[in-house]
Design a protein that fits this description.
Blueprint (H helix, E strand, L loop, with lengths): L3 E7 L11 E2 L12 E3 L4 E2 L3 E7 L7 E7 L3 E7 L9 E8 L6 E7 L1 E2 L8 E6 L6 H7 L9 E3 L6 E8 L7 E11 L8 E6 L6 H7 L9 E3 L6 E8 L7 E11 L8 E6 L6 H7 L9 E3 L6 E8 L7 E11 L8 E6 L6 H7 L9 E3 L6 E8 L7 E11 L8 E6 L6 H7 L9 E3 L6 E7 L9 E10 L5 E4 L3 E3 L7 E4 L6 E3 L22 E9 L8 E10 L20 E2 L7 E4 L5 E5 L6 E5 L22 E3 L33 E2 L5 E3 L4
Parallel strand pairs: 3-9, 4-10, 11-14, 15-18, 19-22, 23-26, 27-30, 32-36, 37-38
Antiparallel strand pairs: 1-2, 1-5, 6-7, 6-8, 8-9, 12-13, 13-14, 16-17, 17-18, 20-21, 21-22, 24-25, 25-26, 28-29, 29-30, 31-33, 34-35, 35-36, 38-41, 39-40, 42-43
């Protein structure tokens, strides 16, 4: 059997590949044997091809394709044409009815397709130009050398690497390298920083003071502390090399200082000022702080100084303000001293009110009465002076006068007024006498001193007593009639050398006091006066008594039922049996009397009961008739009365007194009236 193997190209590479077909003719001698022929033109290694066995002959000859000799390895097809295969050595194994089997081999070679490698990344130092070796080195995947780069090499960007295919492969392969720039080290632009005194600067503070966008991650030197110059160093990051440096100059801001607490005295009544308070602080306080509370007088004031950035918070101090009182000489006063004494400074000071300051001075020189001025000088910080005055008057020493003598009548009551009148000089009133005035003796008048005087004064009065007359007079009876003879007076006591007198109408002997009722010209009641002339210190002395002279009347009483006035009568304002009740207006007097030497009923009126003096209901003339009624027993037809009136009424021409009766019938109606 004869075998001819033809290689036909089929398939494609990952790149654009050309289809290449190789044919191989194999002479297979009989009996079967195999013969290998090498390919002269390769295929693209990423392409496939088919193998064709030509001239296969023999009874039931069958061709199978293997990767190993003798029908071993991996089968790659059956029939004259193999499955598509890539580069490698393959065996056409022919079997049939005739033995042995025949075998032929063929080797398919491959041309590698273009390989631009796998995309990469590259970092270069900012400001430099990338190079082809740098770009090529950034690719992976074993790129073919000899390719080309585009665009023109410069700095950062995306660069493309192109590798052209080698026949039989066609087309190109490309890859890219993304180039970025690593910035040069940047320590920024030098800066300045202020920190709060006493604090340690920090790296973030220093870094914040730089400008120009410095790179983070640098280092500071020297070791961080307070004020000074600090250097910031930034090392380059590969592929850059070297370092960059900048500096920050650090200064310190003093902490707020309100100073040390102080004390201040101001003049009372003034308002403290901020400069005064500030000057009272020590310790070099900062200016520009604030004071609280609102400035006024005495008190505690707080000074607050706010921190200046970057310092924070506040500092405070206090000033305790006290007030120095203004000079106070007090309120003008008055002072009384004892006459003859010299006023003293304590006395003058005590006379002032208003709480005056001690320690002032008095002028003029202290003496007696006058006006004295008290001057108080101000105590710093107050200035000036204050003055007040005290008007001094003198209190006279007590004056009891000089000793005296006094004779009084025994009838005279010894009084302090009589004793005072017996003193000599000009004694002060208001003193006291001792012992209690009571007759003859020595009496002392004491005048107590009026403050501020203290020693009392005294004087005496010696009293003697002259006996006073003690005579009294009386007649044998109090009532006589004009028919009675001479009546003698009785003198009791001493002396009996006085004279007698009485009102006109009574016949009286002035020498011995005898009265003669029968020769008296007017009946009535008379006051008889016995007069003893003044003697020594005793005054005129009088003694009196009264006598009544009534006219002598002869009457005949013939009454079946006489009224007996030997006992008091019963009075009533209204009608009742056995009583005397008011007729028109009640008379002033209506009572039993012994004026006529026996039991009589005395009826009298008084001017106080006159028309103008009576109550409003009784002011008419009707009530000028004032008397009483008495109800007689039934059946009485006549009545009589013994009426005694003063003789002078006989010629008055007026109705002065009277008696009348009114008759009533059994119905109590008036049945008859008197006809005269």
């Amino acid at each position: 059997m004869g075998l001819l193997v033809q290689v036909s190209g089929a398939g494609s590479m990952t790149q654009v590949l050309a289809l290449i077909i190789f044919q191989y003719r194999l002479h297979v001698p009989h009996p079967p044997s195999h013969q290998q022929q090498q390919a002269t033109n390769p295929i693209c290694s990423n392409a496939t091809t088919t193998l064709t066995a030509n001239g296969v002959a023999g009874t039931n000859a069958t061709v199978t394709w293997w990767t190993g000799t003798g029908g071993t390895g991996t089968p790659v097809g059956t029939g004259n044409v193999s499955n598509p295969v890539g580069p490698g050595t393959y065996y056409a194994y022919v079997t049939g009815d005739c033995l042995p089997a025949a075998e032929a081999s063929v080797t398919v070679t491959g041309q590698a397709p273009p390989n631009a490698g796998i995309d990469g990344n590259l970092t270069i130092c900012a400001g430099s130009t990338v190079t082809a070796p740098q770009l090529f080195a950034a690719l992976t995947g074993g790129p073919d050398a000899g390719g080309s780069w585009s665009p023109a090499l410069a700095g950062a960007g995306v660069y493309t690497y192109t590798v052209n295919a080698i026949a039989p492969c066609t087309g190109t392969d490309v890859s890219t390298v993304t180039v970025t720039e690593q910035a040069q080290p940047n320590a920024g632009i030098d800066g300045n920083l202020t920190i709060c005194a006493g604090s340690t600067v920090t790296a973030p503070q220093l870094f914040g003071a730089l400008t120009g966008g410095p790179d983070a991650g640098g280092s500071w030197s020297p070791a961080l502390a307070g004020a000074g110059v600090y250097t910031y160093t930034v090392n380059a990051i590969a592929p850059c090399t070297g370092t960059d440096v900048s500096t920050v100059t650090v200064t310190e801001q003093a902490q707020p200082n309100a100073g040390i607490d102080g004390n201040l005295t101001i003049c009372a009544g003034s308002t403290v000022t901020a400069p005064q308070l500030f000057a009272a602080l020590t310790g070099g306080p900062d200016a520009g702080g604030s004071w609280s509370p609102a400035l006024a007088g005495a008190g505690v004031y707080t000074y607050t100084v706010n921190a200046i950035a970057p310092c924070t918070g506040t500092d405070v101090s206090t000033v305790t303000v006290t007030e120095q009182a203004q000079p106070n000489a007090g309120i003008d006063g008055n002072l009384t001293i004892c006459a003859g004494s010299t006023v003293t400074a304590p006395q003058l000071f005590a006379a002032l009110t208003g709480g005056p300051d001690a320690g002032g001075s008095w002028s003029p020189a202290l003496a007696g009465a006058g006006v004295y001025t008290y001057t108080v000088n101000a105590i710093a910080p107050c200035t000036g002076t204050d003055v007040s005055t005290v008007t001094v008057t003198e209190q006279a020493q007590p004056n009891a006068g000089t000793n005296g003598a006094l004779t009084i009548c025994s009838s005279t009551t010894l009084t302090t007024g009589l004793l005072s009148g017996a003193l000599g000089g000009s004694p002060d009133p208001g003193g006291s006498w001792s012992p209690v005035p009571a007759g003859a003796g020595v009496y002392t008048y004491t005048v107590n001193a009026t403050a501020p005087c203290t020693v009392p004064a005294s004087a005496t009065v010696t009293v003697t007593v002259q006996a006073a007359p003690t005579a009294t007079i009386a007649y044998s009876a109090a009532t006589y009639t004009t028919a009675d003879p001479v009546q003698s007076v009785t003198i009791t006591g001493t002396p009996n050398t006085g004279t007698f007198s009485a009102p006109a109408g009574l016949s009286i002997n002035a020498a011995n006091g005898d009265i003669t009722p029968s020769t008296s010209t007017a009946p009535g009641t008379y006051l008889v006066t016995y007069t003893v002339p003044a003697s020594g210190v005793c005054p005129v002395y009088t003694a009196t008594t009264t006598v009544t002279i009534n006219p002598f009347v002869v009457s005949v009483l013939n009454c079946s039922t006489p009224l007996d006035f030997s006992s008091p009568v019963s009075l009533s304002p209204t009608q009742a049996p056995g009583v005397w009740y008011t007729d028109r207006y009640a008379p002033f007097g209506f009572a039993i009397s012994g004026d006529l030497g026996g039991s009589t009923l005395k009826h009298s009126i008084n001017a106080a009961d006159g028309e103008v003096s009576r109550p409003p209901a009784y002011v008419s003339t009707f009530y000028n008739t004032q008397g009483r009624k008495y109800d007689l027993e039934a059946g009485t037809t006549t009545l009589k009365i013994k009426l005694y009136v003063p003789l002078s009424w006989a010629t008055s021409g007026k109705r002065m007194a009277g008696l009348w009766g009114t008759a009533f019938d059994n119905t109590n109606a008036v049945s008859a009236l008197p006809d005269h």
